[in-house]
Design brief:
The chain is α/β, with parallel strands linked by helices. The protein has twelve helices and eight strands.
């Protein structure tokens, strides 16, 4: 299937990033969310990212203008999805909410349209079960910030077809991502490994092993990680990591993924990381 039109559902941090890189790669993109206010903030962020690219010599003025012209916006998910060759969902990380959306997308979209979810940990099989096209449902897990991070984790459900995988990998290549292919398992490859490290760092902080700064330095200087696990948690969002930890603990039954008390406490206090101004660090 030749992909020309991509609809991105959800204009948050991940959604607007996916829309940006898709437009830069030459796709016609529609970015959808429930309000014009959310969409306006998203487009301002896209323009800011592109402007920084121009200032750093990585994007030309012409490329920036062309990318912005390729992005349309809408609050009408049904109309936008009906015209898409590929729909990428980037909404809240809740299975029931995603299933509800995918049921609607299944009804709105052309029979050949591929439905992708940006989930970082939820079952592709369960998301696909809300549709009558499980062979055309796939995980396309992008990383934040989307326009900088090179990895795309492509997750195949038990019924995902070879054709659907082939198209997803082709799109990944066209938008300049290095793709890995992972079978549908809780947490996939990236969230499962990354979260295990992050949760252990939180337990070390609880136990007074070292400060947050020194735990992070141990990994960034000792293991060459670009950012330490606690600072990374602040960037991802403590609420997001708590949700994934609860899911993986339920699905895998491993104490590795039991959420530490310090994580629950900070989320209850509204200390969600960079987006709230404080998490394990003050921003």
């Amino acid at each position: 299937m030749n992909i020309e039109n991509i609809t991105v559902i959800g204009a948050g941090t991940m959604g607007h990033g996916i829309a940006q890189v898709s437009a830069q790669a030459g796709f016609q993109v529609t970015l959808v969310d429930i309000s014009e206010e959310i969409i306006a903030r998203a487009m301002a962020a896209v323009e800011s990212n592109l402007r920084k690219g121009v200032e750093r010599g990585k994007v030309t003025e012409a490329e920036m203008r062309e990318a912005l012209l390729r992005i349309q916006t809408s609050t009408d998910a049904a109309k936008s999805a009906s015209q898409a060759d590929l729909v990428v969902e980037a909404i809240i990380e809740r299975l029931d909410t995603k299933q509800e959306l995918f049921t609607k997308l299944d009804a709105f979209c052309k029979s050949e349209t591929i439905l992708a979810t940006n989930t970082s940990s939820l079952s592709i099989e369960k998301v696909a079960s809300a549709t009558r096209r499980a062979d055309r449902v796939i995980g396309m897990h992008f990383f934040n910030p989307v326009h900088i991070m090179k990895l795309l984790e492509v997750v195949i459900g038990p019924e995902t077809s070879e054709d659907t995988l082939s198209v997803a990998l082709e799109v990944a290549s066209r938008i300049g991502k290095e793709a890995i292919t992972v079978k549908d398992a809780p947490g996939f490859a990236t969230s499962r490994l990354g979260l295990a490290l992050g949760l252990e760092a939180m337990r070390m902080l609880e136990q007074g092993v070292a400060s947050a700064e020194d735990i992070d330095k141990a990994m960034s200087l000792g293991y060459n990680h670009p950012v330490g696990p606690l600072r990374l948690t602040d960037l991802v969002g403590l609420d997001v990591r708590l949700s994934i930890a609860e899911y993986l603990f339920t699905e895998l039954g491993s104490e590795v993924f039991r959420p530490p008390d310090i994580l629950r406490q900070k989320v209850e206090e509204g200390k969600l990381g960079k987006k709230s101004g404080e998490g394990f660090y003050k921003w």
